[in-house]
Amino acid sequence: MTDAIQGSRSWLDAVKPYVEKEPLAAFFLGVSSGFPFAMIGATLTTRLAQDGIDKKAVTAFTLAFLVYNLKWLWAWIVDGVRLPLIGGLGQRVSWLLVAGVLVMAAVANLALVDPTTSLIQTAYAAILVGAAGATFDIVIDAYRIETLKPEQLGVGSGMSQYGWRIGSVAAGALALVMASRVGWQGAYLACAIFALPAMLTGLLLGEPERHRDPVARRGMNEVWQSIAGPLVEFFRRRGAFLVLLFILLHKIGDTLANLTFRLLFDDMGYSNDEIAIYDVGIGFWAYLIGIFVGGVLYARMGMKRSVLFSLILMCVSNFSFAALAALGKSNWGMAGAIGFENFASGIGGVTVVAYFSALCDLRFTAAQYALISAAASIVGRFLTGTTAGGLIERFGYVDFYLLTTALAVPGILLFWLMMRAGLIDASVGTAATETSDTP
Predict the structure, then answer these.
(1) Predicted model pTM
(2) SS3 of 20, please?
(3) Hey, which of 92, 96, 270, 422 would disulfide with 265, CB 3.0 to 4.6 Å?
């Protein structure tokens, strides 16, 4: 009986961190963060492919994601500019509401364009979704980091990834199902509701406890300091340039591969329903399991070793798609490749996001995390938009995914060298150490 009671307490102790208000807030923020990505990612890729657009044009649309990589250019505005009228709700809350409305409007605009009539208008609409989604992400990431306590960064990152995957998968699945029945316009319009969870979270919880009110900007010098300050602070840290190099390199192979999966499935002859079941369905559950395992690994192995392990897993997951392409159409093969890739990404989503969150200084949360998250995938997205379609047509899917596997190796080696040199611990900011009670 005593063992049973102790086991029950141990289980409750393990679950308790996940049901505290701060990690739960991170979950709902993640739901809204994930859906704009799905609207211009796999969903738009499927829409364009089914409309008969050639592969080079389809992969070129991934350049819309580059807007996310430029978000650090205006993130200082979210940190320092107080909005009129609704600014009294708080800096983060007011920006959550405005950015959410912008995302909903941009998705509705994308719904109303016709790719078969004008690819240019479709591209502009996708870029607008990217810009609105990037602004939404700036606020969401800052709200999440400032809401979580330092000891909650791992759990909060996991919950955020749970929310992100649920938001992106639910929006993607809803779009696929509705597109088959009412068309793509109705599908996109319905998905706009996924902006609401983050907006409602901000209204219910209010301003984060660790948020610092912006300093009034009275002149050009003060504005320049608000822009340059986050960069100057970051690059003053020991090994900052190596840290930035790791951020740039670590996800090249993974990003290059992920944004081409729907092309592979379409060419292999999978139907929308099969994609929904195997890619969306199995991938969804594998990702959730991966997040749970990532949380356990983060707690038991520590930040450094868990990040290194997740990088290795994500590298190997790219190889599984080379194997699927070589095997040919197979539901079991697709389930295995998608399952392993999402399992590895779930682990990495906890460990890597927790590390990146820990890098922030609370004086510049929005700007610094925008810089870090933008840099994390810019190289892979640029290569996808400019070369992926051509590489696939020239070399085939097998060699393409083998290439993405090789491109993941430099990031692994660099992180290992940073561990050996003690740069991981030296690179963290006040988000990993300072509480709301710290003066």
Answers:
(1) 0.78
(2) coil
(3) 270
Structure letter (DSSP) for residue 148:
S
CB 419 within 8 A of CB 246: no
User: What's the pLDDT score for residue 229?
Assistant: 77
Cα 411 from Cα 417, distance rounded (Å) = 10
**What is the percent of the chain with per-residue pLDDT over 70, rounded to a whole number?**
85
Q: What is the CATH number of the domain that holds 175?
A: 1.20.1250.20
Q: Which residues of 126-155 are buried (b: 16+ CB within 10 A; e: fewer)?
A: bbbbbbbbbbbbbbbbbbbbbbbbbebbbb
DSSP class of 81:
P
Q: What gap in Å lies between CA 108 and CA 186, rounded to an integer?
A: 9
Does residue 109 come out as left (phi exceeding 0), alpha (psi in the -120 to 50 range) or beta? alpha
The answer on pLDDT for 146 being more than 50 is yes
- Contact present, 42 and 175 (Cβ < 8 Å): no
Domain that holds residue 404: 16-208+225-432
220 inside domain: no
Give the model's confidence band at 7: pLDDT under 50 very low, under 70 low, under 90 confident, else very high: very low
The region that residue 214 occupies, defined by phi over 0 for left and psi between -120 and 50 for alpha, beta otherwise, is beta
Percent of the chain with pLDDT strictly greater than 90: 16
Domain membership of residue 369 (yes or no) is yes
